[in-house]
UniProtKB/TrEMBL annotation:
It comes from the Bacteria. It comes from Pseudotabrizicola algicola. This is Uncharacterized protein. The lineage of its organism: Bacteria, Pseudomonadati, Pseudomonadota, Alphaproteobacteria, Rhodobacterales.
């Protein structure tokens, strides 16, 4: 895997979720233009939020696991 273009800036959980929500809002509002307008930080926030919500990452070339969303009991 290559090195990031620039270091990923750490975000507090609330900031990460809010940034992800705003990015999704732009995509829904602006369609393709919204997608192409996402920043690295927006994509990082969306990725972190999906992982925090239990999405299981599948690396390129790996088989898809039976379970793609891990549910934890609280």
């Amino acid at each position: 895997m290559g090195r990031p273009v620039r270091p990923i800036v750490p975000m507090a959980p609330q900031e990460m979720v809010e940034r992800a929500a705003r990015a999704v809002g732009r995509v829904l509002r602006d369609d393709m233009r919204g997608i192409t307008g996402l920043s690295i930080d927006d994509i990082t926030a969306m990725t972190g939020t999906l992982i925090a919500l239990g999405l299981v990452p599948v690396l390129p070339g790996e088989a898809t696991p039976d379970t793609l969303i891990e549910r934890t009991r609280t």
